[in-house]
Amino acid sequence: MRIPHPIPPLYDNTSAILILGSFPSVRSREAGFFYGHPQNRFWRVTAAVTGAEVPQSIPEKREFLLSHHIALWDVIASCEITGSSDSSIRNVIPNDLSPILSAAPIRCVYVNGQIAAKYYEKYQRPVTGIPAVCLPSTSPANAAWSFERLCSVWQEITVPLGLK
């Protein structure tokens, strides 16, 4: 069964970087916002590398992203998926990134994990012409990466933000 992406992109006219995931997890779809699973390390990692407090509520998460000039969305607009398993994704329809790219001065595109990278390269890069930097997934399924190791690589997002 095809599942549509239920969360709109988050960006404004000051967003300098775009971080793209693959497709929202069941928990994120239920919460109505990105990285809703409490074990996903996205919020802890991005807060750590930007020197901010970890946002807790959805309004705090929105404010955190926008105040740090971070746009956030996913590569996939709809797909068939079993639970939250990226490896089960089939019959992808990609998101159109042009509304973000035309409204915001995006300097760099990052993808959160290999699945997001795969679908970005297949569908969005040929349209945008913008290469994406693949960062290791913050998903709890990526247990091989410790929090500290994730932060050391995710530190890269601070460069176009002027934080490093």
Could you explain the architecture of this structure?
With 164 residues, this protein is an alpha/beta fold. The protein has a single domain (2-158), classed as Uracil-DNA Glycosylase, subunit E, CATH 3.40.470.10. The chain contains six helices and seven strands, in the order E-E-H-H-H-E-E-E-H-E-H-E-H. The protein has helices at 26-31, 42-50, 58-67, 98-103, 114-128, 147-154, and strands at residues 2-4, 17-21, 70-74, 76-80, 90-94, 108-112, 132-135. The protein has a four-stranded parallel sheet with strand order 3-2-6-7. The radius of gyration is 15 Å and the shape is globular.
Short descriptors:
three-stranded antiparallel sheet; globular; alpha/beta; 164 residues; four-stranded parallel sheet; Uracil-DNA Glycosylase, subunit E; single chain; 20% strand
CATH hierarchy class name = Alpha Beta
Order of helices and strands: EEHHHEEEHEHEH
Low-confidence stretches: none
Strand content: 15-25%
CATH topology: Uracil-DNA Glycosylase, subunit E
Question: What form results from the Cα inertia axes?
Answer: globular
What summary fits the major beta sheet? Answer: 4 strands, parallel
Secondary-structure-based class equals alpha/beta
Q: In which order are the strands of the major sheet placed?
A: 3-2-6-7
Number of domains: 1
Total DSSP E strands: 7
